[in-house]
């Protein structure tokens, strides 16, 4: 799903953004006009257009509201992100 350096065999990090159209008791989400932001330490943020998208609830960690004005002012081409460390259970 994401092409980042590091050991990602047991961990995938995806950032989805879109308009929340619906959800249910298990936090399954319906997103409209959605896209995935793929972060890299060597190049800018890549946005993959998804359109109407359903996310299974047990894969959801955080849901939040975005300030559209602030988000549109971001220069995604200059944003870099280092890979996360492994998750320790």
From TrEMBL:
Domain of life (superkingdom): Eukaryota
Cell compartments where the protein resides: Nucleus
Entry's Gene Ontology molecular function annotations: mRNA binding
InterPro entries: Lsm8 (IPR034103), LSM_dom_sf (IPR010920), PTHR15588 (IPR044642), Sm (IPR047575), Sm_dom_euk/arc (IPR001163)
Keywords from the UniProt entry: Acetylation, mRNA processing, mRNA splicing, Nucleus, Ribonucleoprotein, RNA-binding, Spliceosome
Gene Ontology cellular-component annotations: precatalytic spliceosome; U4/U6 x U5 tri-snRNP complex; U6 snRNP
Biological process according to GO: mRNA splicing, via spliceosome
Domain Sm residue range list: 1-69
Keyword Acetylation assigned: yes
Assembly and binders: Component of the precatalytic spliceosome (spliceosome B complex). Component of the U4/U6-U5 tri-snRNP complex, a building block of the precatalytic spliceosome (spliceosome B complex). The U4/U6-U5 tri-snRNP complex is composed of the U4, U6 and U5 snRNAs and at least PRPF3, PRPF4, PRPF6, PRPF8, PRPF31, SNRNP200, TXNL4A, SNRNP40, SNRPB, SNRPD1, SNRPD2, SNRPD3, SNRPE, SNRPF, SNRPG, DDX23, CD2BP2, PPIH, SNU13, EFTUD2, SART1 and USP39, plus LSM2, LSM3, LSM4, LSM5, LSM6, LSM7 and LSM8. LSm subunits form a heteromer with a doughnut shape.
Protein purpose: Plays a role in pre-mRNA splicing as component of the U4/U6-U5 tri-snRNP complex that is involved in spliceosome assembly, and as component of the precatalytic spliceosome (spliceosome B complex). The heptameric LSM2-8 complex binds specifically to the 3'-terminal U-tract of U6 snRNA.
Family that this chain belongs to: Belongs to the snRNP Sm proteins family.
This protein's name: U6 snRNA-associated Sm-like protein LSm8
Gene: LSM8
